[in-house]
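Morning F.,

Quick status update on the modeling queue. The single chain you submitted on Monday has been processed. Sequence for confirmation:
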Amino acid sequence: MTDHKPDIDEVSGVETTGHSWDGIKELNTPLPRWWLFVLYSTIVWAVIYMIFMPAIPALPGMGGTNTPGLRHHSDRALVAQDIDKLHADRKAASTKLLGASLTQIENDLELQQFALAMGESAFGDNCATCHGAGGRGAKGYPVLADDVWLWDGTLGGIETTLRHGIRHTEDPLTRMNAMPAFGRDGLLTGNQIDDLVQYVLNVSGREADAAAVSRAAPIFAQQCVVCHGADAKGNRALGAPNLTDRDWLFGGEPRDIQQTIFNARNAHMPAWQGRLDDATIKSLAVYVHSLGGGE
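Structure tokens below.
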């Protein structure tokens, strides 16, 4: 027998725990059976998981590693297997890519899709810093998504540019041509350069000083025609831009043109041959060609 007398709450008729806070008593209400079932189930599941899966970290005598579990499961090993499989799949496709010409790649849908995916990834890692995402370009960095090319916009031409770069002096096959710094090197006076600015504005279809254009005509013929041509439409064999359109690499405002003539704008692109493997360079050529500006 016990002399314990349960304390019954007068309102609910439920036994209390005997605890009271500021006159508020705690009811001794049993936990819901469904809640207890879930609780006990999670405990059982946790024990089973600890037995079969890596769970307990660095017990004494285990060499600083967790318990391996009966399944010896390892996410690290599974990821390594997936990467090895990916490399194997890419190696087979890359071998096929290397054995195909650029034209064959574009005519083989499966191979083209592989090249585009590989090229897009390589472009993001190596080219987007200068040319922007999707080849949108920036001031001083050519847009690759239009049909305006300084050198060669064919598949083979793009591959050559990628391999050997532009004005990359360490590569003897690089695309090389340099515009003189007419002002900095004292080849022309400031007034002559100002007149040439007006001449360039005129040939590109914009308002210009007619007298300055007339004065600049013989200067242009003597200093500029050899690269840009008598019609000022440029020469892609030399990387000389067309001056008659509205596409400007370094800006088409009068001040921009003046600075280009005065200091020259001989930009540099690195040669990627030796930095990237042949399959990646081919893929980049296909990707750049696909951006909308390939010929």
